[in-house]
Design brief:
341 residues; alpha/beta; seven-stranded mixed beta sheet; five-stranded mixed beta sheet; 35% helix; 16% strand; globular
Length: 341
């Protein structure tokens, strides 16, 4: 009887095992045939389009809206326009008109206005913000005012705005501790940076003696440009965008179609122009120079002028949207315009 009981128990166990195997097989078949599996098929066209779209973005640039004098209304309207399309960030080129006072009160007011931006806000200094400032005795107060702007607008390693982006400042280097206005940040495979090149001939002063502010900043900017291009090359960036107040004058070089500038005084942009041209020639990506210096062609619609891999965009408009499309042959496009080189 014990033998019969053991045989019956073994038979029951075999039946149970067979049922379990059958159930698992049916479940696996159902899973393989399910719609979820069919929808997750890799390499579909819709998935590829989604990935391409995810790599694209846009940024806004607020032009120097104080060209015709102090008008904060124009600045407010420009910020509203530049932020309406949910850009990755916005760059404001300057905070005041040359005719406005260089007071702490005005600086603080403009700081509050720019910091209220819904998008990350980068402030790129203009010459009118500091270079022509005078003290009560009528003497230049430019260096003091520049330092005050640095203390107020560049106090930490973030942009302004309700939504902020981390940035890396030149002031993180001990040797160039003062130059916090020079900052870089990255979106996708594009490196963005500001560089202090004021429109009034790079603040070169012809007075006798050492031109201290200009010469010291020249050294700092030289190191900054080397750092930016080295970073872009090392990380295999698709593009490098430089924001400045002044136009370094690359379009005056051979190969550009615009007429060269004739100046009787020393060209304060000569060294950065030569350096950018040399470094860009060794960079496989595109280099876009964005400035707001007033030119005669300012009345025309903004466009990017290309020579090889270097493009120049002069912004006279109150604000402009630039789209970046890494998946396309054209990396940079203005709103509604194709600017392929």
């Amino acid at each position: 009887m014990k033998h019969a009981a053991r045989a019956a128990a073994g038979h029951t166990a075999r039946i149970s095992l067979a049922r379990t195997v059958l159930a698992l097989s049916l479940a696996a078949c159902a899973l393989w045939l399910s719609p979820v599996h069919a929808e997750s098929k890799p390499g579909s066209k819709s998935e590829a389009r989604g990935e391409a779209k995810a790599g694209s973005f846009q940024f806004g640039v607020v032009g120097h809206s104080f060209k015709t004098g102090a008008d904060e209304t124009v600045l407010k309207r420009a910020i509203a326009g530049a932020t309406q399309g949910n850009p990755a960030f916005v760059v404001a080129t300057g905070v005041k008109a040359g005719s406005e006072p260089c007071s702490d009160k005005l600086y603080a007011s403009r700081y509050a206005l720019l910091d209220a931006s819904s998008a990350p806000m980068v402030v790129s200094l203009a010459g009118s913000d500091w270079s022509a400032c005078l003290n009560s005795a009528g003497r230049s107060n430019a260096i003091d005012r520049l330092n005050r702007l640095r203390e107020l607008f560049y106090r930490d390693s973030e942009t302004l705005g309700a939504r902020r982006l981390p940035v890396t400042r030149l002031s993180s280097s001990v040797k160039f501790r003062s130059y916090a206005e020079n900052a870089h940040w990255q979106v996708g495979k594009v490196l963005f940076a500001t560089i202090n090149l004021p429109a009034n001939n790079n603040h070169y002063r012809a007075e006798a003696g050492r031109n201290s502010e200009y010469e010291d900043r020249l050294v700092a900017n030289r190191a900054w440009l080397h750092r930016l291009f080295n970073l872009a090359v090392r990380q295999q960036m698709e593009g490098l965008v430089l924001f400045s107040d002044g136009d370094v004058g690359l379009e005056a070089e051979p190969g550009f179609s615009l007429l060269a500038r004739f100046e009787s005084k020393r060209d304060g942009f000569a060294e950065p122009r030569k350096q950018i041209k040399t470094l860009a020639s060794k960079f496989k990506g595109k280099v876009l120079l964005v400035d707001t210096q007033i030119v005669e062609a300012a009345a025309k619609e903004p466009s990017i002028h290309w020579q090889n891999n270097v493009g120049h965009l002069n912004l006279a408009a109150d604000w402009t949207e630039v789209r970046v499309a890494p998946a396309s042959a054209t990396l940079f496009m203005l709103k509604g315009a194709d600017t392929a080189p």
